[in-house]
Amino acid sequence: MLNRDFLTHPNHRSSHQVPTPTSGGWGFVLVMLGCGCWVLRSENILIFAWMWIGSPLLGISLVGGLDDQRPLSVKLRLALHFLGALLVVAGGLMLVKVNEAVVWSWVVACFGVVGLVWLVNLYNFMDGIDGIAATQAVLIVGSWWLVSGAFDGQAGLVFSPPEQLLGTALVGAMVGFLLLNWAPAKIFMGDIGSNFLGFGLGSWLLIKAIQTPEQIFALLLPMSVFLTDATYTLVRRMFSGQAFMQAHRSHTYQILSRRWGSHAKVVLAMVAYNGLWLFPLAIIASWHPLSGPLSLFAGILPILILANKVGAGLIND
């Protein structure tokens, strides 16, 4: 029996047409937290990871779970998001050795707090059509893996064995979830799922960037579609005088899904863009960090052009 509170009902802002069970993210959140404890079996690593990453990740996920059932105030959500981000940044800075680029690590950390909070919220904004959020998570982790091994270990982006195991588990969990979430979706991940993915992937990116700041562009490139669409749409709504904090359906991906009459086509187009354009750029950015800013610009420019062309942030029909 499905309780009414666990159903998402269509409204004027929805991209679906029938009531659909939500909060499906509980499944992969619990699996991944358990997997994390198993992978990080070393007592010192487990305690550190739980204090500075696991506990804020669980907390932010639970905030999303509560918000699924009874919407929380924006101020309370943001305050909790900032608290979680500060904990992750503090943990990341503890991993930086004295002889490393400490100054740049602090710069990344300062910007990273705001960036991590934004990533949590934009992942929620971008989870608006079937399969897109889970697919983006697979693309991010898959791209990181492929980039890190693109030059037989010579690339600057390196992941430890525990990170590789956790990433593999996350990809597996997302593929399993996509079996139910692919269009037409039988279940949605809800805010608990999008909060977990946004905060989890963002925390991972942030800690790696604090450790190796020169790799931040290679880390960001696989996220370019979500980052660019959400940020452009928000800025466009702000400058056009709209109530930008209210829910809407004027993101580029939402407009395209309506024009194309298909959620799957939009998601597959995103997969193609990542594979054919963003992934090669990420390899270049990782192999030669000085090319990072140019590679990131080349990655986001086509998305900006498309967003402007379709009227993202303005069209909400």
Characteristics:
12 helices, 317 residues, mainly alpha, 2 strands, two-stranded antiparallel sheet, single chain
Structure description:
With 317 residues, this protein is an all-alpha fold. It has one domain. Helices cover 70% and strands 1% of the residues. It contains 12 helices and 2 strands, in the order ββαααααααααααα. Strands 1-2 form a two-stranded antiparallel ribbon. Helix 3 runs parallel beside helix 7, helix 5 packs antiparallel against helix 6 and helix 10 packs across helix 11. The longest helix is centred in the N-terminal third of the chain and has 27 residues. It is globular, with a radius of gyration of 19 Å. The relative contact order is 0.14. The mean pLDDT is 88.
